Amino acid sequence: MKYVTEYRDADLVQAVLREIRRTVTRPHTLMEICGGQTHAIVRHGLDQLLPEQIELVHGPGCPVCVTPLELIDKALTIAEQPGVIFTSYGDMLRVPGSGRDLFMVRANGGDVRVVYSPLDAVKIAQENPDKQVVFFAIGFETTAPANAMSVLQAQALGLDNFSVLVSHVCVPPAMHAILGSPDNRVQGFLAAGHVCAVMGYWQYPPIATQYQVPIAITGFEPLDVIQGILAVVRSLEQGKIEVNNAYARAVTYEGNKAAQQVIDRVFEVRDRQWRGIGPISQSGWGLRPTFVQFDAEHRFDLGAIDTQESPICIAGQILQGLKKPHHCPAFGRQCTPETPLGATMVSSEGACAAYYRYGRHLILESAHV
């Protein structure tokens, strides 16, 4: 398949790895922003193929993982209410709130449905005029255009029984938060190609300059990731602070202007809470006041939400690149995909899920035998 098969060619990957080995002369710590990149790295063992001077740490680029616990609990409260059809992508159903998840709500009689597009939720609202239909609108910049279009479509159809529970977060403010932390040890970034396909990468050169870290935009195939690593390592070794587009087949500097216009029409920038990380100023989107009738938080009286995180889950430190999944004492033991303590174990892009799915916990177990 064009643009896929060649980016999985083992010989090409090995050639780039050899170039990385020739280039690197000192230790470097790099962070891949996106959970999709994390899964590609762990699935193909790319981190284990790199020279020992290069360490990859995993960033907060999983929207399911960083959706705040309070919002998960709000989703559960809404989904429990009679007369509500709560719709979501499938990976949100097992994300733990304070003691339960959406699967449990469905098991107890709640009408919780998996959809593959927010427009599916709009259609459900059309077909069920006597029900309140809520779509859990989470994501980074990649899902924002479709979520915005669902609101515009509901408005055009005159639907008064459709609303969205919004948890949109943005990548550049998270990069600022990580690089500005006193505990930061990230020296270079692999930026998320699908985010940049929507938003472009014009926001990244000022970040690179401010914190003196090179950035490479990469895709999600093995060769994409390795080429991005090579670009960042070359910059570090040469003392250059630059932004390299290693995903030019999908990303332009300006991004998708039409998608950006749709986002700007429906959403406005807001402060956001990130699960495991805390508040980040101006780091997300919420509905503009002109669309408040489609805001589920405004539509439903939720009252006070009392949240309780697992005391032993270290997902927040993992999302900031301070620790890795196997540093958690519960990883692969108390915390598994069937019995998760945090969102990073159940999300399809979570770092803990990647380590578990591709057998890193088995390696750790054998090491202790």
Rg on CA atoms, Å: 21 Å
Which fold name is given in CATH as the topology of the largest domain?
Answer: Rossmann fold
Integer average pLDDT:
92
CATH architecture identity of the largest domain: 3-Layer(aba) Sandwich
The CATH superfamily label of the largest domain reads: HypD, alpha/beta domain 2
Number of DSSP-assigned strands: 11
Topology:
Blueprint: H1 10-23, E1 28-34, H2 35-43, H3 46-49, E2 54-61, H4 63-66, H5 69-80, E3 84-88, H6 102-107, E4 111-114, H7 118-127, E5 132-139, H8 144-157, E6 162-169, H9 171-179, E7 188-192, H10 193-199, H11 204-211, E8 215-218, H12 222-238, E9 243-245, H13 257-266, E10 267-274, E11 278-287, H14 296-299, H15 315-319, H16 351-357, H17 360-368
Parallel strand pairs: 1-2, 1-7, 3-4, 3-5, 5-6, 7-8, 8-9
Antiparallel strand pairs: 6-11, 10-11
Structure characterization notes:
The protein has about 375 residues and is α/β, with parallel strands linked by helices. It has two domains: about 1-325, HypD, alpha/beta domain 2 (Rossmann fold, 3-Layer(aba) Sandwich); about 325-369, no CATH class. It is about 40% helix and about 20% strand. The chain contains 17 helices and eleven strands. It has helices at about 10-25, 35-45, 45-50, 65, 70-80, 100-105, 120-125, 145-155, 170-180, 195-200, 205-210, 220-240, 255-265, 295-300, 315-320, 350-355, 360-369; strands at about 30-35, 55-60, 85-90, 110-115, 130-140, 160-170, 190, 215-220, 245, 265-275, 280-285. The chain has a six-stranded mixed β-sheet, with helices on both faces. α8 crosses α13 (about 255-265). The protein starts with 9 loop residues before the first helix and ends with a helix. The model has no long low-confidence stretch (mean pLDDT about 90).
